[in-house]
């Protein structure tokens, strides 16, 4: 490659995350030995060696996606975007037999519409391939070979490759979810915030399809969050190092350990969601050790010296909100017992 890709210059990547989770993600990345972190709204810029970058993709529990910046440039007009998009050497990561998609976000810039920006970049990529090879790669929004992120802020554009290959909350263990399943990355954030380190027993008295229990299990057993993921976007990068990735995976997997029976348990009033929780947990190592019972939390015996985590029902309609006031009060009483 004539020019280095942006991330190859100095090893800076970007971890996207939910709002207010930035500090937790930064702490998690530091635990994984990244060199530097800079938190911004809904994400963390971090600098890492390739090995650590692979580990972050495989093991981060709270980040929702890892981006590898390919190119940054001044983008004060649609013409700037088209020109840079046309001149970039896309053939290093894409060919006419494979598909791509673009997610775009613009703010405080001359280009004001995200979808229009994505369309302009898509045209530039397609025109470049057509001019060079007489045909172009197709767009596939559902399952693209490469997913690009275009971010234009203050007339500065960054085009990145989605190095995770799809959102990291898709762990691969949730085959079924109840009515209001929690996002896995948020559940992982709650486990981290609780400070639970697998010493106390952990209990979720309204466990639903078991997301908090599953994330607690991954944490306690040191199971990488992407242990079931078959493919990562970083495999499409031109300097992808299969030997290094295998080493990272092997080292991370070697830390997986067993937990004592009943360290993690939960209950729910609704039998159908407990079946889902059981099915989901069965896809994780030691999942069979998580005890699940059908019970109204008001009937539970006293839980002394437990770490209690819970995602309470939340109503949207006014009637539901009224009914929930009592439930929240009763839950408060339950915690004080
Ligand atoms: C927001 S959902 C929990 C979702 C869960 N975190 C997940 O990821 O699937 C709230 C759960 O509380 C349960 N629930 C409501 N009232 C309950 C009660 N009195 N006792 C026990 N569980 C209750 C519901 O059945 C529902 O599964």
TrEMBL record:
Provide this UniProt record's keywords sorted from A to Z. Methyltransferase, RNA-binding, Transferase
Residue span(s) of domain THUMP? 52-163
Q: Which GO terms of the molecular function aspect are on file?
A: RNA binding; rRNA (guanine-N2-)-methyltransferase activity; rRNA (guanine-N7-)-methyltransferase activity
Q: Please indicate if the UniProt record lists RNA-binding as a keyword.
A: yes
Q: What is this protein called?
A: THUMP domain-containing protein
A UniProt-annotated Pfam family: UPF0020
Look up the domain of life of the source.
Answer: Bacteria
């Amino acid at each position: 490659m004539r020019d280095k890709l942006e991330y190859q210059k100095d090893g800076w990547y970007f971890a996207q995350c939910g709002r207010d989770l930035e500090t937790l993600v930064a702490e998690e990345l530091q635990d994984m030995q990244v060199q530097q972190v800079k938190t911004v709204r809904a994400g963390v810029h971090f600098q890492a060696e390739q090995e650590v970058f692979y580990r972050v993709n495989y093991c981060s529990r709270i980040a929702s996606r890892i981006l590898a910046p390919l190119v940054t440039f001044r983008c004060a007009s649609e013409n700037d975007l088209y020109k840079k998009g046309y001149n970039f050497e896309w053939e290093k990561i894409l060919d006419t037999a494979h598909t791509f998609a673009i997610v775009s976000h613009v703010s405080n810039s001359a280009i004001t519409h995200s979808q229009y920006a994505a369309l302009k970049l898509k045209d530039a990529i397609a025109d470049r391939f057509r001019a060079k090879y007489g045909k172009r790669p197709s767009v596939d929004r559902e399952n693209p070979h490469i997913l690009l992120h275009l971010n234009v802020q203050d007339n500065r554009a960054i085009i990145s490759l989605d190095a995770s290959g799809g959102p990291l909350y898709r762990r691969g263990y949730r085959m079924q979810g109840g009515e209001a399943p929690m996002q896995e990355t948020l559940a992982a954030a709650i486990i981290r915030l609780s400070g639970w380190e697998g010493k106390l027993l952990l209990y979720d008295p309204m466990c639903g399809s078991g997301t908090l229990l599953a994330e607690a299990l991954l944490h306690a057993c040191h199971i990488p969050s992407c242990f079931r993921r078959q493919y990562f976007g970083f495999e499409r990068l031109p300097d992808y190092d299969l030997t290094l990735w295998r080493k990272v995976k092997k080292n991370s997997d070697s830390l997986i350990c067993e937990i004592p029976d009943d360290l993690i348990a939960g209950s729910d009033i609704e039998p159908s969601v407990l079946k889902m929780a059981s099915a989901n947990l069965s896809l994780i190592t030691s999942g069979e050790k998580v005890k699940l019972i059908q019970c109204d939390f008001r009937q539970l015996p006293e839980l002394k010296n437990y770490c209690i985590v819970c995602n309470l029902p939340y109503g949207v309609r006014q009637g539901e909100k009224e009914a929930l006031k009592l439930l929240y009060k009763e839950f408060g009483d339950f915690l004080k017992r």
